[in-house]
């Protein structure tokens, strides 16, 4: 005679609870404005560091100097302007020439998509030529972490660390690709746990 596990309710309730907690976290968690400001400053510095290693990218951005680019994800809004040097600077402006709004609101779903190597869904509004240049940058400009690490620890150690990081990313992508969604993965794990307890 088959008996039902006393924990079978968890397999049904926990995925829904996790989803509600994630959406509640998004709605309620608001970091202090100075933290957001500092993170954005560091992000712009990092983007400029990556751009400086690609002459073609800087030339493309220099042609778009003065354009107003707005990146939006939920309540987070970043306004950037290309400079004559082909770099980016933060701006504060009304209106925009190009607005890129990330459609995915859940940080977990966004991180999952990025770990799979997928581009997040983005709504594009504004200047088509500027959008094409930004798309080119996204497709062709990559951070060479190994080169930056070599300046600190040397070429051999940097190569070894970068190789280990690539293997870890490949493993992570393989793991994420097997699970269709975070909720389904949690339900599968809980189903196995409750099934074995029966």
Descriptive report:
By secondary structure, this protein is an alpha+beta fold. The chain folds into 2 domains: 30-142, 2-Layer Sandwich (Nonspecific Lipid-transfer Protein, Chain A); 144-198. The chain is built from 8 helices and 5 strands. It has helices at residues 8-28, 33-51, 55-62, 107-116, 128-140, 145-153, 155-178, 182-197, and strands at residues 69-73, 76-82, 88-90, 98-102, 122-126. It has a 5-stranded mixed β-sheet with strand order 3-2-1-4-5, with helices on one face. Helix 6 packs antiparallel against helix 7 (155-178). The longest helix is centred in the last third of the chain and has 24 residues, at 155-178. The chain is globular, with a radius of gyration of 22 Å.
Q: How many DSSP helices?
A: 8
Rg over CA atoms: 22 Å
The H-and-E topology, N to C, reads as HHHEEEEHEHHHH
What portion of residues belong to β-strands? 5-15%
Number of domains: 2
Give the overall shape, derived from the CA principal axes: globular
The unreliable regions are none
Examine the secondary-structure arrangement and name the CATH architecture of the largest domain: 2-Layer Sandwich
What is the fold named in CATH at topology level of the largest domain?
A: Nonspecific Lipid-transfer Protein, Chain A
Look at the structure and give the mean pLDDT.
77
- Give the class-level CATH name of the largest domain: Alpha Beta
Helices and strands: which structural class?
alpha+beta
Distance between the termini: 11 Å
Biggest beta-sheet profile:
5 strands, mixed
User: Total strand count, please?
Assistant: 5
Strand order of the largest sheet: 3-2-1-4-5
Residue share in helices? Answer: 55-70%
């Amino acid at each position: 005679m088959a008996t039902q596990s006393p924990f079978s309710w968890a397999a049904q309730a926990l995925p829904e609870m996790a989803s509600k907690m994630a959406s509640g976290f998004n709605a309620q968690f608001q970091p202090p404005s100075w933290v957001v400001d500092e993170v954005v400053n560091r992000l712009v510095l990092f983007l400029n560091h990556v751009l400086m290693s690609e002459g073609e990218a800087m030339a493309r951005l220099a042609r778009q100097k003065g354009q107003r680019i707005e990146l939006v994800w939920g309540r987070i809004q970043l306004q950037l302007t290309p400079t004559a040097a082909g770099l980016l600077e933060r701006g504060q402006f009304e209106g925009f020439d190009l607005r890129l709004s990330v459609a995915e609101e859940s940080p977990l779903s966004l991180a999952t998509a990025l770990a799979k190597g997928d581009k997040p869904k983005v709504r594009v509004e504004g200047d088509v030529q500027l959008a094409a240049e930004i798309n080119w940058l996204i497709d062709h400009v990559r951070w060479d972490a190994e080169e930056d690490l070599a300046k600190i620890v040397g070429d051999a150690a940097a190569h070894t660390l970068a190789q280990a990081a690539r293997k870890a990313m490949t493993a992570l992508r393989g793991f994420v690709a097997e699970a269709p969604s975070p909720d389904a993965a949690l339900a599968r794990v809980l189903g196995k746990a409750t099934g074995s307890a029966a």
